[in-house]
Amino acid sequence: MDLSEILTKLQLENKETSDSTSPQPCIPVSKALSQIQHLFRAATSPKSQEGILKDIRSFLSAADVHWLFSPCCQNAGLNIGDIWKEFVNSLIQHTILPKCELDSGELPESSYQLIPDRAKNITEVLLILLSKAAAEKHLNPCNSTVVPETSPASTLLPSVFIFAATHLQDYPWTTASSRFAANKLMDLLVETAYCKNVRELLCGKQDGGTTGIFGAVLELQRPELKKDTWKLNQATKHVFLWSLLQVPRPWLCVHLEHVFPASLIISDDYRTENKVLGVRCLHHIVMNVPAADLRQYNRAQVLYHALFNHLYTSDADLIQVVLPCMLDLLQVLENPSHRAGDPRKPNRYDEVLRLILMHMEMEHKIKLRRVYARNLPPFIERLGILIARHLKRLERVIVGFLEVCDAPEEEARLYVLKTLESTIRHAWPRIAPRLHVLVKSLVNLLYDVSTDCSSTPQTMKDELLEHVTRCLLLLSELCGQDLQAVLGGVHGSCSDARVSQCLEKVLQSMRCLQ
Q1: CB atoms within 10 A of CB 371
Q2: How far apart are CA 183 and CA 166, in angstroms?
Q3: For residue 149, what pLDDT is reported?
Q4: Which domain of life, per UniProt (predicted)?
Q5: How many angstroms separate the CA atoms of 143 and 140, rounded?
Q6: Which residues contact 331 (CB under 8 A, 6 or more apart)?
Q7: What are the pLDDT digits (tens) for 68-127?
Q8: Of 105, 91, 110, 423, whose CA–CA distance to 269 is shortest?
Q9: Is residue 138 helix, strand or coil?
C-alpha cells in the first residue's frame, strides 16, 4: 500500500464514521505515521523518496490538528510527543551526513552532494509540521478527563534545532537554498516557543518563566561528543560551537560539566582547524562562567596547561585565538597586579609573557609577527609596573619589530608602537637607561615611513607617524633634557619635511614644559 492509498483510506473512513463538524479519521495517528515511516524506509531511489515527502506534506497540510496532536479520541492513551519525536527523527535520519571513519574527521565534498536537496525537502515537511503543532497549543482535549501532556511542539524542539543548526551555515553539505530553508525553520522554532531569538530559545526567558532547550540539545549531542565519536560526523563540532556561542552567562554555568570536556577534546586534536574551534569554545566558557566555578575541580589549571602547550605552535590562526583566551583565563587564575602583594612574586602572567617575547624575538613570518604584536599591548596593560621584569627582552623585541616593514598593512609596527607607549606609561622609572636605543629606533622609523614608496596607504603612514610622535612626547616628559640634546642634532641635519615636522612638534612640547 502506498501513501496515496493511505490518504484515500483515511478520507473514506472519515466520511463513513464522522460528521461534518468533526472531520477526524477513526484510526490513531500512530498507525498512520507508522505506515508512512515504513513506506519512506522502503523507498530506495531519490525520486521515490521525494515523491513520498511530497505526499507527507500534503497529508500534514490536510490533516485535522486535533487528530494529529491531541491525546484523546482515537489517540487516547498514546504518548503523542514520543510518537511525533520518533517520526521526526526518522525523517532527519534521511539527511544525516555520511559516517567518517578517517582520522581527519572530514570527507571529500563530493560525499555530501545528495545532502542539500534532502535537507531542503525534509525542512519543508518540518515547517508544515511545526506550524500545525503550534496551532495545537490553542486547542483543548475534547474529553475533559484527559490531562494534556507536554506539547508535541515542545518535544520536537531539541532534535529539530540540531537539524536546523546543521544546515544553517556555509558548509560542504549545504547550498544557498538549503541554508535559506534552514533559516526559515530556525525562525519558526523561535516563534513556536514564543521566544524573541535563538538565545532565549536555548536559555529560557530571563524572568524564569520558561526553561530553555540547551540542556536537551546537549543531551542529544552527548553520544556524538565523546573522544572516540566526535569525528564521525563532520557537523557535530560545528553545531556544538554554534549553539554554545548563543548561551551567555549566567545560563552557561549550569551546563559546564557537559560543555567543558567536549571543548577540551576538540581543542586537543592534531588538526589546526579543530584546535581553533575548540579554543573558541573554551574562550566562550571562560568569558561566561564565574571564576569560582572555573577554579573548582582544578578546571582552570587544566585549561591553562592546555592553552600553554598551544603557544609552542607556529600557526598564526591558532595563536590568534589562544592568546586572547589565555589573557582572560589569567584573570581567573591570578590576582590583579596592583593586588599581588609585597613582594610581587612572578606568576603565570610572567611565564606566558616570557614565552611570547622569546617567540617574537626569533619570529620571521610576517603573519605570525602581526598576531603576536596585536596581542602584546593587552598583556602590558594587565602586568602594569610588573612589565619591568621583562624590559630587557621587550626592548629587543620592540627595536627588532620597528626595523622590519610589513607593508601595506603595517600592523606589526603599529601595535608595537602601542606596546611601547603602554610600556613607557607603566614602567617609566626604568625607561631612562634605554632612552638612546629607543630614540634611535623611533627616529629611524620616522625616516623610513616618510620616505616609503611602497603601497602602504597614506592614512596608515600618518597613523604610524602619529604614534611615533606620541612615544617621543612621552619620552620627553621623562628625559626632557637628554632627549632634547639628541633630537636637536637630528632636527638640524634633517632634510625631510615630514620628519622635521614631527621632531619640531616634540621639541616645541619640551620647550613648553620648560
Answers
A1: 25
A2: 11
A3: 52
A4: Eukaryota
A5: 8
A6: 291, 382
A7: 887 767 666 677 888 999 999 999 999 999 998 877 778 888 999 999 999 999 999 999
A8: 105
A9: coil
d(CA 105, CA 232): 6
* Burial class (CB within 10 angstroms; exposed 0-12, middle 13-18, buried 19+) of 406: middle
Amino acid symbol at 67:
W
Residues 6+ apart with CB under 8 A from 45: none
Q: What is the 3-state secondary structure (H, E, C) of 189-224?
A: HHHHCCCCCHHHHHHCCCCCCCCCCHHHHHHHHHHH
- The C-alpha atoms of residue 407 and residue 115 are separated, in whole angstroms, by 44
What is d(CA 504, CA 440) in angstroms, rounded to the nearest whole number? 16
* Tally of CA atoms within 13 A in the half-sphere of 115 that contains its CB: 25
- Residue 336 preceded by cis peptide, ω within 30: no
Question: Exposure pattern of 122-141 as b/e (b: 16+ CB <10 Å)?
Answer: bbbbbbbbbbbbbebeeeeb
Torsion sign (Cα): 218, 219, 220, 226: positive
What's this model's pTM, rounded to 2 decimal places?
0.90
Q: Please enumerate in sequence order all residues whose Cβ is within 8 A of that of 286, keeping only pairs 6 or more positions apart, or say none.
A: 294, 303, 325, 328, 329, 332
Instruction: Write out the E strands in 364-513.
Output: none
Question: Can you list the positions of beta strands (E) in 364-491?
Answer: none
Residues with Cβ within 8 Å of residue 415, at least 6 apart in sequence: 370, 373, 374, 376, 377
Q: Which of 384, 263, 278, 375 is nearest to 323 (CA)?
A: 375
Which stretch of DSSP H or E encloses residue 418?
A: helix 411-426
Report which residue type is found at 233. N
The C-alpha atoms of residue 371 and residue 369 are separated, in whole angstroms, by 5
